[in-house]
Amino acid sequence: MTFALHGIPVSKGIAIGKAVLISRAAIEVSHHLIDSGKEEAEAKKLLDAFDQVRLELDQLRQGLPKDAPPEMAAFLDVHGMILADPALAEKPIKLIRTQRLNAAWALTTELNDLLEQFAEIEDSYLKERANDIRQVAERVIKTLNAQQDSLTPSDFLPTSDIGVESIIVAHDIAPHDMLRFKEHAFTGFITDLGGKTSHTAIVARSMEIPAVVGVRHASEMIRHGDWLVLDGERGVVVVAPDEQLLAEYRELQTQILKEARKLQQLKHAKTETADRVEIELFANIELPEDAIQAVKLGAVGVGLFRSEFLFMDRKQALPDEEKQYQEYRRVVDLMHGLPVNIRTIDVGADKALGGGRDISQTGTSPLGLRAIRWSLTEPEVFLTQLRAILRASAHGQARIMIPMLAHAKEIDETLRLIEKAKQQLHQRGKAFNPNIQVGAMIEIPAAALVLPLFINRFDFLSIGTNDLIQYTLAIDRADHAVAHLYDPLHPAILNLLANIIDQAKRANVPVAVCGEMAGDSALTRLLLALGLTDFSMHFNQLLLVKREVLSANVGLLRARVPRVLRAYEPEEQAKALERLLS
Ligand code: PEP
Ligand code: MG
Q1: Quick check: 209 and 192 in contact, CB under 8 A?
Q2: How many domains in the chain?
Q3: In CATH, what number is assigned to the domain containing residue 72?
């Protein structure tokens, strides 16, 4: 039966393909059918993983200190009992033997069934046990994953479907997991959770893969192997589409492709407005090799290199100075002398630190130990990164950009550490640019309200509108429940932006916007009207934004903006914006 689900469109385009369901229990569960004849070996893998977890729990139990709270021992006993019950492995083994599911997939299927049964139980004590079962099963899944090699596309759909496009459906996907999927031939992403500027959405856009997030219950309503149409323009997912609908969407896909080809003609056009104001379009990148595309599409530099993506791989240790230097140098080399703003690590909130570090080190709250706050608590990690960036600056225009500053003392401590990193390199006889430019991101309202503090201390500023909006409007940008309140056009946001740009320009300090607003071509004219001349965005948005720039008249736009900024009432603002954009 055909039905449609709705969510938040976060990455444009149309995808048509079969659903690949990624389990809610653990994103890293690979789903594949094992070869016939290998069923017993797979069943043994599962039983071995159970044994290993049992051993780990026994060791934990024995190693408990004498003064450990009694609940701790009781908790380990309950987990031991769950593991000892042969029923937990029974059904998964049956699934391996009869349906040839891989071990982790089989166990997850059983876990989901059990959780559903527990959800119907009234007794609160028994209901609580669902969590114990989940924790035990996830521990076994982790053990299985540790034995598993990296995924290949054919892991996901049966071999009979090779060549068929596939669309990932998941409860949620972490940004670094999203990057892992880059190697696979997926044509779309659908998640139950997420918002427009969550980092997962940002990565989907950078991969140019259509995506819809915040599609509540998608991972429960869509089944593995269902045919799907994912409309990344309107935020619609059609499950089991009929022939007519498929034909309509295929036609739409063709049109989008044609449009994209037409845009390519703008690649070499000079970026200036109709009234000859020069505009600079920079690229945002997550991985060094993204710089290749950025240059091809005519970016005048990298406005934001989210360096934390080098630090988010759970399986690898945090990269050392040499490794980081190689990666930064690669971007600098690829950009052939153009500026590269290397943003220092911004982990925390929806970006978990890898290298085997525990999540408790940064926390998941967007108000917590994130970005520069975390770096300042780990001066050795921070100094290592600073030295690596400085060394890259010997080969081109590498610049340091600091995220999430708000306090004068944080700024001063940061600048002190940059000087210390320079001294350390000097002592080691390593080359670097002693006049390297250092910039600050303006993404906390407090920073925007005390801008002179930043203007006096930094060489350039870059406005992170994703966070500036999140913190000004007090909504978690990754939470779909408040996604409807995420509004870049809120008068408070527009006035803050106007003020930051105006103050920076007056002081002759370069200022850019590197949040998602800069890449939204529907907002290009508005940002030009606010006086912005430097835009940094995902490279795939570059030509769309350029098209807007070429036809805009900044003089006219600037004259009409005061009315927009004074309009607090929604109808009044809509009229003022309509006039501005007409
Ligand atoms: C921003 O906050 O706008 C920004 C560019 O940084 P990030 O999206 O990585 O938080
Ligand atoms: Mg930010």
Answers
A1: no
A2: 3
A3: 1.10.274.10
**How far is ligand 1, taken at its centre, from the CA of residue 464, in Å?**
5
Q: Token pair for residue 561?
A: 């903006």
What CA–CA distances, in Å, run from 436 to 6, 131, 304, 339, 422? 47, 52, 16, 11, 10
**Closest Cα to atom 4 of ligand 1:** 464
**Closest residue (by CA) to atom 1 of ligand 1?**
464
Query: What percentage of the chain has pLDDT greater than the value 70?
Result: 91
200 CB near ligand 1 (under 6 Å) = no
Cβ 515 under 6 angstroms from ligand 1:
yes
- The parent domain of residue 19 ranges over 3-24+150-244
Q: How far from 224 is each of 170, 295, 343, CA to CA, in Å? A: 11, 39, 39
Q: Which amino acid is at 340?
A: V
Residue 201 sits in the same domain as residue 298? no
- How many C-beta neighbours within 10 Å does residue 466 have? 23
Return the active site residues.
Answer: 199, 514
Residue 500: is its pLDDT beyond 80?
yes
Report H helices in 450-490: 451-455, 465-473
Condensed to tens digits (0 to 9), the pLDDT of residues 179-191 reads 667 666 789 999 9
Rounded Cα gap, residues 527 and 580, in angstroms: 11
Residues 349, 451 share a domain: yes
Give this prediction's pTM: 0.74
The CATH number given to whatever domain includes residue 240 is 3.50.30.10
Tell which wins on pLDDT, 132 or 6. Answer: 6
Sign of CA dihedral 568, 571, 576, 577: positive
pLDDT digits (tens, 9 = 90+) for 128-146: 677 778 778 877 887 887 6
